[in-house]
Design a protein that fits this description.
Length: 329
Amino acid sequence: MSGTTQTTVMIRTSILLVFFSVLALGQNNNEKVLLASEGKYSQYYVELDKNMGYLIALENYYSKAGRYYVATYIDTLAKSEDNNEILFIGNKSKIQLINKEPNIVIMENLQESIKSLKLDTVNDTTYAFIDLNNGIWWSFFLEMCKEINTSFPLYDFSFYDGFGYWASFNNKNENYQSFQAIANNKATYIKDSLTVLNTPLVEITNELLFKIDTIKYDELKVKLMKLPMEYKSESWYFGTVLNALCNSRPEYFYKLVEDIPEKKEMLFGMADLDKSTRKKLKKVETNSPMQKEFIKYRRGETMFAIWGTTIYTAGMIAFWGGIIYLIVK
């Protein structure tokens, strides 16, 4: 075990034996028991009462920002009346006695068994609920993140933001069933907020792209400055219009740089140009001193790239030459 599950103590106790004995005897018992089983890449939690239960499957993931879970599915389990060994059964899983011990059996198409894992009682539900709620949060957040980036392709909403939102929850150890509504509401709020933020930016961007060949400079500048001046890793509304401007009205590009000289290098860097657009910027007739500065800037970028490639190539030749020398020697 690792991460938060390292502190989740799961032991087989008399509670588990008594619970399944009660099920076998058909006694009236409304108590619930939380069970868990850990696979190589997955964590499974099962909550059962006398008549039904839920299986929550969590997948383990790692990133530079840390470890997290994703709840891949929740299977509703019903008590089985037809088989003494199969205690509960759902669409994707069943709880079955194997060698008199309860196991999760993961199924495919309700028939073929993919794998089985032994179940243990969860001694401390606090950390179990943290794991469950983490998986629930990420399942909601990643779906919302996908919807936002699909709806607003010029806005880069990073999944790394999910770690900050998760850290902001002060009820991580709440019962997972009530936490589902909390996580869903949070994800919905973020989605609605980002929709309100991005919708007018899309409208301005589309308007400017539509008018790019005919719009007057003053109107262009006023509306363009309403867009966030950011690199692609954040948003590319401003950059999209700027590059369209470089291609259709290159003289306006230089005038814009003159008007906001404190952003000169950023604007030069945002001009993500193809070969034909670079030619237009070089050949356009203008008195702007920014034209020479831009050409110089681009030439410096090219030389830096060439030197970087040369140094890397020389380093690799020296490295492999040394390896070959040692082998031959």
